Structure formats: structure tokens, C-alpha cells
Amino acid sequence: MKTVREAVLIALNNMEFSEAYSNLTLDQTLDQGTFSQQDRAFATVLFYGVLERRLTLDACVKRYSKIPMRKLSGDILNILRMGLYQLVWMDSVPDSAAVNESVRLVYAVKKVSAKGFVNAVLRGFVRDGKQIPLPKEKIARYEVEYSCPAWLVRKWIDEYSEDTAVELLKASVSTPPLYLRVNPLKTTPEELADLLTRRRRGTEVVKEIDNCLSVQGIGSIRHLPEYKKGMFHVQDLASQTLCKLLDPKPGERVFDLCAAPGGKSFTLAQRMEGKGELLAFDLYENRVELIRQGAERLGLCCITAQQGDASVFRPELGLADKVLCDVVCSGLGIIRRKPEIKYKDPADMKALPDLQYRILDTGANYVRPGGMLMYSTCTLSREENEQVSKRFLQEHPAFVPCALPGYDSFEHTFFPMECGSDGFYLAMFQRKE
Question: Which of the four, 27, 192, 200, 249, has the lowest number of CB atoms within 10 Å?
């Protein structure tokens, strides 16, 4: 590849034909070229912007294209999406450059016959004042305005109210904050904040939770010397709060049944001051290795990472003081970080509540009398959240709901517009003595 826009086009095309994670797809594509930090930053904005606003961009294509979308090749459609995104949301790119560079991409994919078509669509959009065509019908308008599929718009309205749904839609296309979990075994929040600020990165100590930093403009995490030295790991505010509420003590035995890539295990181990035993499991061995590597980088010797199916009980493991079931879920709380999630077929999510319940049921078998069981997801879906917790309490009389310190219930939903965290749900239960 020759240009950064060609790299973005390749990454977008790859996303169309695979179920890969967006961050891995972009990183792997950019690593095949020699791009500056500025180029990589541009690529990140454009790549994620097109993914995030795909339904909005497609509405514009339909309005200005004389060719039905179903007849457009994938790369030409993505070229149009890229051009339109630059025209609307990238003020640093002049309109002429957005159009001309899009036409150049047509040459790069060897479809020269489409150059006039691409040029006409983009220039027609500019000529009309770059107005996004919003439908009159409410659900359809929300779908185009916030690039969110109608099924999800309806779901959030039905489950959380229209006002809450609109706030969630706004948050879903906003820039997510980045939080770091400071490793207290190696540094302090003030020391790490000072080190990062010296590189002209906006860093603030979060007062609401210990050992937490909010950062801006940090660039590539894995290349920072402080990261390599194990002074922090990346973890959202809601996940850090979960670890605070579960509150493992030094010397306790803790299980994290769905642990990879390991963020919650790391924070729990830090709260244990590295004393005790934390068993971290994942279904796939390659993801277990990620936990091992992270624990080694952070100097957390009390973590043992193992391959294991969280839905299958293994009595030989014995009992634990605290068990975390951070289960596989639809991910509807993190679509501003992974926008590809919202385009999945909702039918693929139907089986999740039963799987989540099985994992929670299995986790309950490991809890000692008087011990704690935490259930959590990174989704905003009552089927996967409150309904699973309700079913668990109905079918497990040995457990009682345990009030979360600082909250008025045993369960809590974190909404992005309320505290800046990802969308997240947690519930805590205690086994009777």
C-alpha cells in the first residue's frame, strides 16, 4: 500500500468479510506499511469514523447515487463512505482534498471506470450543503442520525425510555474517555500522571476511585515506557468500580471465570496486594496467554491463568472467597469503542442469556459459605442483565442479594452519559452461612 487512505480502505474492506475485532484489523493493516504517528492518528479517526457512522453515510450514498447500493462493489462503497465522512466530520480535510483523494482511491483499486461516479456523488453532496437526509419517521430518523440499527433503537426505547435511549444514542457516537489503572505495586497516581504529562499528554487523577487516571492524547499505549515497565493497564471506570465493590482482601482466594484479556484479574490482584490466590480462566489458550503476559508485566505473582470452560463445573478447583462471572455478552455497552458490534444480527444474541445463566450457575458452585458472587456484563440489555440476575435468585435459594456499597441495590447499571464509563451492569450475591 502507498497511502494512509489506501490502508484505511483495505482495513474497511477486511471488516466487511470477517468477524475480526476492529482494533486488531486496523493495527495489522497499518503494521504492513511505514506510517508516521500523524498518519496512524489520521487513519484511526477515519477508520473508526466510517465504521461508527456507516448507516448515516449509506443514507447519503442512497440519496446521491443513481446506482442502487446493492449493485455497488464493496470497495467503491467504502471509498464513498470515506469521502463522505471526511466531508462531514473531518474539518482538517478540505472538501477538494476529500473528493480528489477519493477519486485517487478508485485508481488504486483499478476501477477507473467508476471515477466519474465517485466524483459526481461527492460533489453533489458538497453542492447541496453537505446535508444529511433525515427521514421523518422517528425510529428511521434516529437510525440515520445516530447510525444505530432500528432494532437497537427500539430495544433501548422499550427497556429504558425514549429520553434515556436518545442519550445512549448520542453517547454511542461520542469519543470514549480513556482510563488507566495505576499499578500500586510499582508507582502512584501522582507519579504516573507526572511522567505522562511531561510528554504533553492530558492526564488527570480521578478522585472518585483510587489509583485511576483519565488520559487524553496518549497515542499508542503499548509503546509507552511506563506501560512496558508495568506501571499501569487500561481499564474502564466501570470495571475499576466493580473491582472496588467486590473488594478482595489480601490472602483471599478469588476466581475470575471469564478473565481474558485480564484487566479485572489484574486490578483484583492489586487490591489483594499480591497476597493470596487468584485463578483466572478463559476458554481459549491463546487468550489465557494474554493474561499470563499481562500479569508478568505488572509483577502480579498471585495470578494463575488456566484454560477452562466457565460453564462447566470443576469440583477439583475447590471453593473461593469471591467469584467473578464477567460473562460473554452482546457488548451493547461498548459500541462507541467497537462500533462493528451494533451491525451484528440480533438473532445471534438470542442464546446469550441462557449461556450467561449457565456460567453464573457454575460460578455459584465455587463460592464458600459466606462468600461473594459477582455477575457483570458490558452490555445494556435487560435480557442479559436484570433478567439473568432475577432468574438466578429464583433458582438459588442459598444465595441472597448483597447491597452494593454506595448504591441502593444489589445491582447497578452504568450509563455512559451519567459517569463517562462504558455501558455496564453488575450484580452481587452472597452465599448464606
Answer: 200
For β-strands 411-414 and 399-401, DSSP reports them as unpaired
What is the Cα–Cα distance from 407 to 35, expressed in whole angstroms?
47
Amino acid at 224: L
Q: What does pTM read for this prediction?
A: 0.93
Confirm whether 378 is a catalytic residue: yes
Cα 297 from Cα 265, distance rounded (Å) = 13
Q: Is 90 exceeded by the pLDDT of residue 183?
A: yes
Place of cell 472538501: 95
Residue 89 near residue 53 (C-beta atoms within 8 A) = yes
Give start and end residues of each alpha helix (H) in 198-271: 225-228, 237-246, 263-271
Cell of 298: 505488572
Distance CA 153, CA 139 (A): 7
Residues β-bridged to residue 254: 278, 322
> What pLDDT, on the 0 to 100 scale, is given for residue 25?
87
243, 258, 302, 378: the catalytic one is: 378
Query: pLDDT tens digits, residue range 55-107?
Result: 999 999 999 999 999 999 999 999 999 999 999 999 999 999 999 999 999 99
3 state DSSP class of 319:
coil
Does residue 5 contact residue 46 with C-beta atoms inside 8 Å? yes
